[in-house]
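Input.
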Amino acid sequence: MFMIDYKISEFFYKKLMDRLDIVYTIDIISYLIGLYFISYIVFFVNFGYIFLFIISTTITYLLKLIFNRKRPYYFFDKRFAILVYENHSFPSEHTIIAILSFIITGNILALITPILRIITLKHWLSDAIFTIILSFVFYYFFSSIINFYGLFNSLINILK
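Output.
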């Protein structure tokens, strides 16, 4: 799998090695997409999803510390490193947020973020694939807790 990861990252590196302005712009876009979806979901869909985002990104961050996998740019060009933790590629917090946003809203725009993170050498393809699976696990496990919490609050409001 590492050879496939490496070849894909090498392809994007060769395309963007002299265009760091594009890399930085793409990075900003991926951050803005994530912020948009989190804000939209929390304020307009269901505030309870804030707990899903907090729990899943916390677990993802802890997994990053455990695995400590180097990002693709480490093997090609460290100038690609902007707004990231240096050696924490796996799993992808941006992909967790993007896939959870897609599951909740059904908006395919959310799916752009994992692709952008691979293009800008922030993540390997295998990081994104595993994180997509992890996102579904988080959603199905924690959404039942969030739904229970919402049901619990509804019952309390009815009893008042």
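The chain is about 75% helix and 0% strand.
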